[in-house]
Amino acid sequence: MLSMERSLELGNMTRVQEFILLGLSTSPETREVLFAVFLTLYLLTLLENASSPSLACSHTELHKPMYFFLGNLSCLEMCYVSVTMPSLLAGLWTGPYHVPFTACMTQLFFFITLICTECTLLASMACDRYVAICRPLHYLLLMRPQVCLGLAGTSWLGGLLVSVAKTACIASLSYCGPNVLNHFFCDVSPLLNLSCTHVALTELVDFLSAIVIFCGTLLVSLASYSAIGVTVLRMPSAAARRKAFSTCASHLVVVGIFYLAALFIYCRPSRIRSMDLNKLLSVVYTVATPMCNPVIYCLRNREVHAALLRTLRWT
Hints:
Layout lengths: L1 H11 L5 E4 L6 H31 L6 H30 L2 E4 H34 L4 H4 L2 H27 L8 E2 L6 H7 L5 H34 L4 H29 L8 H25 L2 H13 L1
Parallel strand pairs: 1-3
Antiparallel strand pairs: 1-2
Keywords: Cell membrane, Disulfide bond, G-protein coupled receptor, Glycoprotein, Membrane, Olfaction, Receptor, Sensory transduction, Transducer, Transmembrane, Transmembrane helix
Protein name: G-protein coupled receptors family 1 profile domain-containing protein
Membrane topology: Multi-pass membrane protein
């Protein structure tokens, strides 16, 4: 009887039709400066990430598994910033603004898809480096094109399936008001905070997916680099150790930054209370990481340097 009354009460409540995103700042003077800064960062990120796959496609010496995964990662980063950055810029341009419910859920769906895919891609890249350093004689066999395509395809498909489950759970919740999101895009934790129904099942799905995707791929990366570290320490030549370490250091830095920020926010079943800290960390992995990845991965690479110089000479 009580459950029936509860259902009738929820049915009589007005369902939220839109959300209000507060954005990064409410001060007009600060918003103008931040808008110029983040617009520049957005355009720079698109330019950097577009250059990596175009170089890999146009130069045969870059037709290697490592650059195949980097090309996938660059394409993902361009989609990634294009999902979150427009809403960030709109909030800086107009202040707090209204987002329809369907648009918010659509943004959430693509965001979850891309962040889960990135986790799996980073783990695939760690496995590629493990094979290259620990099993060099079998590298061409183990990382043949079919395997690389399979790893990349599994990464994208896995991210899509996880996103379908998580977004469906969050969209099925009742939102009766208030409808103000203290964030610059539609993210999981702020939406859970606004729900007027029990979110235990949704938080369980969120937690389990975090364990499988975030923790699972992190363990793969840690296991790969532990094996790489043992192999590098056993190398007799200091020059060989430096060369092996240089091929992995950039990936290790990116993995560390990404996982530290993402795991702090998502690998916990409870709702996040410190939303200002949440927004700050979200800027790290939605803005800073996509912008820095091409610089860390490619622009320090001699093969990419040579390909870039040849391209500039041709133009």
